[in-house]
Amino acid sequence: MKNWLKNLLFVLFSFIFLGFGMLVAEIFIREKGNPLKDPNFLAQTPSDTVTITNITTLDSTQGWINDTIDLSEPAPQNTENKQVITKSSEQKDYLVITGMYGQKANANREVKKLKDFGYSEAHSFRKSSMDAVSAGYFGKEEAENIASELKNKGFQAIVKHQ
């Protein structure tokens, strides 16, 4: 079959498939309502109670246990206080990057050099089509100090916030 005919059939099939999906969605919205605009959509089920049965055995001498949950009563609200976590300088969310390599072998060689200099967290990772090499994750001040150290040792280093 010719290439243009394949493309035409693909486009026609796509439009038919999308049209059928839109028709089904329109019928659903007309019959049941729009679930995106109605916050009580899921609460409007035919039955207000749902029984969930969990059958487990405790040991060989006891029988089966049926746990039934009644959903007609609202669940108790969790009133415990949630702890807010704020970013501090101790979080290790700064990455010291020492290079980008097109070949994995070169990136591995750079990681080995960093580990030989004492950076045990040194690793490489794929970034787009390149392999990036990092000395590790550090706090902001520590990352800047390590980048400066690495530059003094002959590496190129930049600090990147994650």
TrEMBL record:
SUPFAM superfamilies: Sporulation related repeat
InterPro entries, per database record: SPOR-like_dom, SPOR-like_sf
A Pfam family annotated for this UniProt entry: SPOR
MF GO annotations: peptidoglycan binding
Domain spans labelled SPOR: 91-159
Protein name in UniProt: Sporulation related protein
